[in-house]
């Protein structure tokens, strides 16, 4: 199962490259008003499909066992949806004086505003042997919170496209995000046994629809002759994203392992991954809605497209190290317990 998940993620990364290359070769197909009609098929149908799919796949019935760890949940959600975006905003005040493309910098801010992903943090926590129930709860709960909080954070830090009023953004978010998600959860309640038995490829469905959204987003970019992305800015953004990811992983580790933190080593593992990972599946559709019609939407999306594979790569590389630390700490705790 783990091998299949890894293969799916690798193919998805290849799919992103092919989608961007396809948009570069023939942008006229996916632009607004083109044959694909993305103003309808993407803005409404594709986005709604992703969140209906999320509603079907979210196992909210398994989250009750994790509800008691309130301190752990508060730490993760506050770090993810408050500390992370605020810190990125402060960091960007320094980067604004550099020659880095301003729209890529704005894209870094969108990364900070995103909710945690539903899958990668859980998979990596499970691979290490950490608190999987807490990872599942915070990934799912963070996704629900993100539906409301992420658009607000985006509007707070960046504003929106002037052509799309505030009320229009939230009415579209409600119809294409909240309603499909709720319907998906209701449908799941009636066909839960069938879903558990057949195990539909939820990840593959969402990934396919997401590739379509990425393709049409970059079609808009490549059809606009006024947009120019310099390689220097792209390389610097890649380096900055690696640095941010590592720094926040270290920071959450230090916070959660300090004396009297109250967190177990297994909790720390869940905190490291859930607090620092960001959702591409939920993020790209939200950017598409909040920045609808924005000529620099694709550039704003680039840092999130980079952050996604970076978090999986770094997480996978660090799994053995984090696992050995957790095992040694757990052994240390057992040795220090008094015998009765």
From TrEMBL:
<keyword id="KW-0769">Symport</keyword>
<comment type="similarity">
    <text>Belongs to the bile acid:sodium symporter (BASS) (TC 2.A.28) family.</text>
</comment>
<dbReference type="GO" id="GO:0006814">
    <property type="term" value="P:sodium ion transport"/>
</dbReference>
<keyword id="KW-0739">Sodium transport</keyword>
<dbReference type="GO" id="GO:0005886">
    <property type="term" value="C:plasma membrane"/>
</dbReference>
<feature type="transmembrane region" description="Helical">
    <location>
        <begin position="70"/>
        <end position="91"/>
    </location>
</feature>
<feature type="transmembrane region" description="Helical">
    <location>
        <begin position="169"/>
        <end position="190"/>
    </location>
</feature>
<feature type="transmembrane region" description="Helical">
    <location>
        <begin position="41"/>
        <end position="58"/>
    </location>
</feature>
<feature type="transmembrane region" description="Helical">
    <location>
        <begin position="202"/>
        <end position="223"/>
    </location>
</feature>
<keyword id="KW-0256">Endoplasmic reticulum</keyword>
<dbReference type="GO" id="GO:0015293">
    <property type="term" value="F:symporter activity"/>
</dbReference>
<comment type="function">
    <text>Does not show transport activity towards bile acids or steroid sulfates.</text>
</comment>
<dbReference type="InterPro" id="IPR038770">
    <property type="entry name" value="Na+/solute_symporter_sf"/>
</dbReference>
<dbReference type="GO" id="GO:0000139">
    <property type="term" value="C:Golgi membrane"/>
</dbReference>
<keyword id="KW-0333">Golgi apparatus</keyword>
<keyword id="KW-0472">Membrane</keyword>
<keyword id="KW-0813">Transport</keyword>
<feature type="transmembrane region" description="Helical">
    <location>
        <begin position="103"/>
        <end position="124"/>
    </location>
</feature>
<keyword id="KW-0915">Sodium</keyword>
<feature type="transmembrane region" description="Helical">
    <location>
        <begin position="136"/>
        <end position="157"/>
    </location>
</feature>
<dbReference type="GO" id="GO:0005789">
    <property type="term" value="C:endoplasmic reticulum membrane"/>
</dbReference>
<keyword id="KW-0812">Transmembrane</keyword>
<keyword id="KW-1133">Transmembrane helix</keyword>
<feature type="transmembrane region" description="Helical">
    <location>
        <begin position="297"/>
        <end position="319"/>
    </location>
</feature>
<feature type="transmembrane region" description="Helical">
    <location>
        <begin position="268"/>
        <end position="291"/>
    </location>
</feature>
<keyword id="KW-1003">Cell membrane</keyword>
<protein>
    <recommendedName>
        <fullName>Sodium/bile acid cotransporter</fullName>
    </recommendedName>
</protein>
<feature type="transmembrane region" description="Helical">
    <location>
        <begin position="235"/>
        <end position="256"/>
    </location>
</feature>
<dbReference type="InterPro" id="IPR016833">
    <property type="entry name" value="Put_Na-Bile_cotransptr"/>
</dbReference>
<keyword id="KW-0406">Ion transport</keyword>
<dbReference type="Pfam" id="PF13593">
    <property type="entry name" value="SBF_like"/>
</dbReference>
